[in-house]
């Protein structure tokens, strides 16, 4: 898990390596995370999206896509937490 801290401004960044749909090896750098936890969460979601199989059924695609639209929980200080999303119940 390549998550690094930028010492000049105190933020975290992620260097993620992946293979695109054409088989080319790519590297993506995402910067500006305030906490290490946010950076690790972004990396986890990025790798899940990159590993998605295009031959999946309609139900599993809609299930994975709906995660982006789940409501976020508001904390007392007014910030929204990425990991505190309300789970959906699938039948």
List the helices and strands and how they pair.
Blueprint: E1 3-5, E2 12-19, E3 25-33, H1 36-50, H2 58-66, E4 73-74, E5 80-81
Antiparallel strand pairs: 1-2, 2-3, 4-5
Quick structural overview:
The protein is α+β, with helices and mostly antiparallel strands and 91 residues long. Helix content is 26%, strand content 26%.
String of helices and strands:
EEEHHEE
Mean pLDDT: 75
Quaternary form: single chain
Give unreliable regions as ranges.
none
Percent helix among the residues? 25-40%
Main pleated-sheet profile: 3 strands, antiparallel
In what order do the strands lie side by side in the largest sheet?
1-2-3
What gap, in angstroms, lies between the N and C termini?
34 Å
Query: In angstroms, what is the radius of gyration?
Result: 16 Å
The portion of residues forming beta strands comes to 25-35%
Number of helices: 2
Report the count of strand segments: 5
Which structural category do the helix and sheet elements fall into?
Answer: alpha+beta
């Amino acid at each position: 898990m390549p998550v690094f801290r930028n010492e000049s401004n105190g933020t975290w960044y992620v260097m993620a390596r992946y293979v695109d749909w054409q088989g080319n090896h790519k590297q993506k750098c995402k910067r500006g995370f305030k906490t290490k936890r946010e950076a690790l969460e972004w990396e986890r979601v990025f790798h899940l999206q990159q590993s998605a199989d295009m031959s999946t059924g309609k139900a599993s695609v809609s299930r994975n896509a709906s995660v982006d639209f789940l409501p976020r929980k508001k904390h007392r200080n007014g910030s929204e937490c990425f990991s505190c999303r309300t789970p959906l119940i699938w039948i």
